[in-house]
Design goal:
Blueprint (H helix, E strand, L loop, with lengths): L3 E8 L20 H15 L5 E10 L7 H14 E13 L6 H9 L4 E7 L3 H7 L5 H13 L5 E7 L6 H12 L5 E6 L7 H7 L8 H17 L3 E4 L2 E3 L7 H7 L4 E4 L4 E9 L6 E10 L4 H7 L8 E4 L2 H14 L4 E2 H8 L3 H4 L1 H9 L3 E4 L5 E4 L1 H4 L2 H11 L2
Parallel strand pairs: 1-2, 1-9, 2-3, 3-4, 4-5, 5-6
Antiparallel strand pairs: 6-8, 7-8, 10-11, 11-12, 13-15, 14-15
Helix pairs in contact: 1-2, 1-10, 11-16
């Protein structure tokens, strides 16, 4: 188990809510100054006497690029004061086109941000409108160019497919446009209709139709094949890196179930309860715990410094741990670490799931990988059917 954590900072502010997004956010920007102060206090109050090591820092949202630069500096200084931040730490900052200029990006780089995630979503004007994005295609192109101009070489673009009226030709147009920028990373998310979003409400009224499951599977397979030919490693269900060195280290830590500290309204954290061994000397790992702050920026501001700690928490049961190991491991091209699964659960993976593994192998949907670590990985065809395969595993976990 790693003794290094990942740090996530949630910036819950947006100029306008996107039609598909169910992440917690607010457009009341007047809360920003008090939010930053409360965020500093939360980080300080949870730091503890012994500084944790931090290998990654991630500013997500919402729209982090709405933060004034002086506040970005304050927050980074607070994290560096409260954590032992690695010299080669990956520091990611999400940016929305239309909210930054060259000076903003140059200062971000000077402050130590070394990875940008730019929320392009599409280079098609029709899709941008459906998704209710605030930016134009021209602003996306300009933002990418400015990021390169000020010296960022680790740039990721977010794209969405499977939108209303999506065709293979439209999606391939988005991918070809993105490839022209030769960025280090591409995140290609399949649109999901989340409860309570405007897009979900429109769908229920019959205002549009979505591609069927076969069409979506075809888009998924075509995306992987096309980007693979262009030198991108399809290392996670929605993520592609130009070489393993450009994988998102922060997100990879999530998929490997390593500890992370989340700060800000609605932010989640994950760690392991520690207990003293009987001799009282060395702490040993016990059950994993997930905790989260309440999704309420006003309540969050009032909470710090009056009281500290997350809003709620749960100790994961053994069944939950097994399910998450399966779900997260099978999302990745590296697959599920069977030795780690057995150490956590006390059960041999291949014994527990023998009939299912055999069926997946016979259908060309999965394979046991040999090497230094014994892993079970889904093939590309298998990952196209991830949800149903995970359900099949879940049925075997009592």
């Amino acid at each position: 188990m790693s003794d290094t954590v990942s740090v996530y900072i949630h910036v819950p502010f947006c100029l306008k809510k996107c039609s598909y997004c169910d992440f917690y956010s607010t457009h009341t920007l007047s809360f920003l100054p008090a939010y930053v102060t409360s965020l500093q206090r939360e980080i300080e109050s949870r730091a503890g006497q012994v500084k944790k090591k931090a290998g990654t820092i991630y500013f997500g949202g919402g729209t982090p690029s709405l933060l004034p630069l002086e506040d970005v500096e304050k927050l980074l200084k607070t994290v560096f004061t409260c954590y032992q931040v690695s010299q080669n730490a990956e520091i990611t900052f999400e940016v929305n086109p239309g909210t930054v200029d060259e000076l903003y990006l140059a200062v971000l780089k000077k402050l130590g941000v070394n990875r940008l995630s730019i929320g392009v979503q599409s280079f098609d004007a029709g899709k941008i409108k459906v998704l209710n994005r605030i930016h134009t295609i021209e602003q996306s192109i300009e933002t990418i160019g400015l990021a390169k101009a000020v010296g960022f070489d680790n740039i990721g673009l977010d794209l969405i497919y499977g939108t209303p009226g999506e065709t293979r030709e439209k999606w391939m147009g988005d991918l070809k446009m993105a490839l022209g920028f030769r960025v280090a990373h591409l995140s290609c998310y399949m649109l999901t209709l989340e409860s309570g979003t405007p897009l979900q409400a429109q769908y229920e009224k019959g205002l549009f139709h979505l591609p069927d499951q076969d069409s979506l599977a075809d888009l998924f397979m075509a995306t992987s094949t096309f980007l693979g030919r262009q030198g991108y490693d399809h290392y996670e269900i929605s993520n592609f890196a130009r070489g393993s060195q450009n994988r998102s280290r922060h997100n990879s830590n999530y998929w490997q179930m390593t500890p992370y500290d989340g700060f800000g309204p609605s932010a989640h954290s994950f760690d392991f309860l520690r207990k003293q061994d009987r001799d009282g000397r060395e702490p040993s790992l016990a059950s994993p715990v997930r905790s989260w702050n309440l999704a309420d920026v006003k309540g969050y501001i009032q909470a710090f410094p009056l009281r500290g700690g997350p809003g709620e928490r749960e100790v994961l049961s053994l069944r939950q741990q097994m399910l998450e190991r399966v779900m997260l491991g099978l999302r990745t091209s590296d697959g599920l670490d069977m030795a780690a699964f057995e150490k956590m659960s006390g059960q041999n993976f291949l014994t527990l799931f023998a009939p299912l593994v055999a069926r997946l192998e016979s259908q060309g949907l999965g394979a046991v990988l040999s090497g230094p670590e014994s892993r079970f990985s889904l093939t590309l065809s298998g990952r196209a059917r991830l949800d149903s395969i995970v359900e099949a595993f879940a049925d075997r976990i009592l």
